[in-house]
Amino acid sequence: MLMRIFYFIFIIFIFLINVTECKRKPHFVYSELGKELILAARGYGATVYEEYINATESLNPDEREAAYPDFLKNVTIWDGNLQKMLQNCSQIQLRIENLKKYDGDMKLLLEKDCNDRSQQTINYPCLGHATDKWAAPCLKIIDDYNETRAEINDKIYTIYTGAINHAEKIVNGSDPDDAKQFLPTKIIVQNILKKALNQILELESEKCRRLSAVLSCISPQMKKICRPGAADAMKTSLLVGYLRNERGISLQTHFEQFDIDPDSICLALDRDI
Questions:
Q1: What are the angstrom distances between the C-alpha of 183 and each of 3, 194, 196, 197?
Q2: CA 260/CA 96 separation, integer angstroms
Q3: Contact 251/145 with Cβ under 8 angstroms?
Q4: For 120-177, what is each residue's pLDDT tens digit?
Q5: CA–CA gap between residue 171 and residue 167 (Å, rounded)
Q6: Can you tell me the distance from the alpha carbon of 258 to that of 245, in angstroms, rounded to the nearest whole number?
Q7: Which burial class, exposed, middle or buried, applies to 81 when counting CB atoms under 10 A from its CB (0-12, 13-18, 19+)?
């Protein structure tokens, strides 16, 4: 009777482990694991229990009790491996969401192109083969955007590199061993960078105005010649992650560190610009 109670507690323990972990993990993680792995996880406790019974069948109660921790360790190892797989699924899902947020082409690929029916709404061949047709009325606006973009990018580079060099001179001119200089130096450097970022923000606003003009011109042409889905796809490709890609990693990181949002004109084009 004592051994039966012991085995019952053992099974309940395994069940509680699974239930607890299910409560911790988002539903999408389990949907990514696949049916076979889920069934394996659910059946593992029963398998270990059966192995325990068979392996200790010829043992006396004391010997059986001594063998119990070894089989419990097997359950713990499986649970640990399952946790690693669940964490990997979570990381993969996060990576996918970031790709869709920061790269317009990846957003199209993952949300549209991976869907077999996307070809019914997005006429990709038309975008490439009929460029002369849908772009013809907008060539002047496109040229203006390209020229403005190049000029503004040069100004942004000059402002940003100038601020970085200025900040480095301030830091190099301070005494790292003097604690009293740390806070004033930090404030000066932050003010230098913030001023530069705000100047860059104004320049980016002008780029977004010109880009908006381009989209306003080409979108009706694309809808007419290549179907509405093609125009929407072009907008997604151009706008999602636009500023992040234009800025580069270093400049984008400084905007994030100072928690500075894009200009309202840019945000009006797309929330993930």
A1: 67, 16, 20, 21
A2: 25
A3: no
A4: 667 778 888 888 899 999 999 999 999 999 999 999 999 999 999 999 999 888 887 7
A5: 6
A6: 18
A7: exposed
